[in-house]
Amino acid sequence: MSSTIKVTVLGAAGGIGQPLSLLLKLNPYITELSLYDVVNIPGIAADLNHIDTNVKINSFIRDNNEPKGTNTQLINALKGSDFIIIPAGIPRKPGMTRGDLFNINASICNELATFIAIHSPNSFILVISNPVNSTIPIFREILNNYGVFNPLKLFGVTALDNVRSNTFISNLIDNSLPKDFNVPVVGGHSGHSIVPLFSQLDKSYKILDDNNIYDALIHRVQYGGDEIVEAKNGNGSSTLSMAYASNKFFNIIINGYLNLDNNNNNNNNCQISSYIYLDDSINGMKELKTGLMEILKGTKLEIPKYLAIPMNFDINGIKNVDYKWIDKMNEKEKELFVIAVGFINQNVEKGLNFVYK
Ligand code: NAD
Ligand code: LMR
């Protein structure tokens, strides 16, 4: 492990990119923060540079005079990155689904994945750009076609679903705080593909015996993104809560990467879900797939190639995936999970068609 940690943010001038870069500038484990965008980066970097923390800021803006296919600034931004976090892409407006972002964001992801494959293939890659259910398959295929795909290091960032679940259940339980909860969320990151597993909390909560309350809670997590899109009324989607959520996810990865788990956290806090390619080489995958086969038995659905599942991390990326949640799901969660897999398989297909059209 290097004693320095370089983190690169692609899309750093955006609604998520700016507050996320601020949070990363405060991180004691990061030595260098590399900020890349196609607009506005010099001013943002100058601003962050006045903060008296030790993280060194470097900034890069695309030079539109360069011929298509070359991008010296992006190459320089990526060089030597340990972690790349990607909030590049357009956000939703009211009335849009995440799927409506596909055409533009798939092209952006295509470009970024290609440069990463060539210039920084060993980095951890954390993709925020929506629709995550389809952009991760695009990243995976491009990296794989260059022969550099590492299944332990490519992550769709779905941490906001965990953050929302913790907040929304806490809102319902008297005398509780969001920090009292760590709800595992599986599936994908879009509407009915999101499945929060409230059954897996340490305690059961009487209030969830009321089906109307339980259903409304699940619906709020699944469609929490819409609440923000509507409230922002044409000015984008979640940015501040997403910057928080992606920073939370990054910190959990860093805890595993630097082996801080035993000192700083109990095991529960070191686990979080991410949307990944279900590669057979990952620890726990055999058991996970056996469980998935059991749940999907009798449906016409294939085992998904990608899924958000809880996992732990170490210096190599994913240390292991958790599969115990499958047997512990209640009947409602099992039904929701089957519905989720149907959507995810379609979203994955869309990503693959983009790459191989
Ligand atoms: P934004 O429009 O405010 O910012 C996006 C940034 O990407 C802009 O600064 C833009 O210049 C930049 N960009 C565009 N093309 C680029 C390219 N080719 N290379 C580098 N940068 C490029 O949008 P936002 O609100 O920050 O959202 C960004 C993305 O994150 C959206 O797709 C949104 O749907 C998604 N999102 C995901 C989650 C999640 O949970 N995974 C949560 C919120 C938002
Ligand atoms: C969210 O869940 O807030 C994000 O995926 C953004 C969106 O489009 O809702």
UniProtKB/TrEMBL annotation:
Its EC number is 1.1.1.37. The keyword Oxidoreductase applies. Belongs to the LDH/MDH superfamily. MDH type 1 family. It holds the Pfam family Ldh_1_N. It catalyses: (S)-malate + NAD(+) = oxaloacetate + NADH + H(+). Residues 158-354 form the Lactate/malate dehydrogenase C-terminal domain. Substrate binds at residues 92, 98, 130, 164. GO terms for molecular function: L-malate dehydrogenase (NAD+) activity. It comes from Pichia kluyveri (Yeast). GO terms for cellular component: cytosol. It is an enzyme of class 1 (oxidoreductase). Gene3D superfamilies: Lactate dehydrogenase/glycoside hydrolase, family 4, C-terminal, NAD(P)-binding Rossmann-like Domain. This is malate dehydrogenase. One of its GO terms (biological process) is carboxylic acid metabolic process. It comes from the Eukaryota. Residues 5-156 form the Lactate/malate dehydrogenase N-terminal domain. The active site is at residue 189. Keywords: NAD, Oxidoreductase, Tricarboxylic acid cycle. Homodimer. NAD(+) binds at residues 11-17, 37, 105, 128-130, 242.
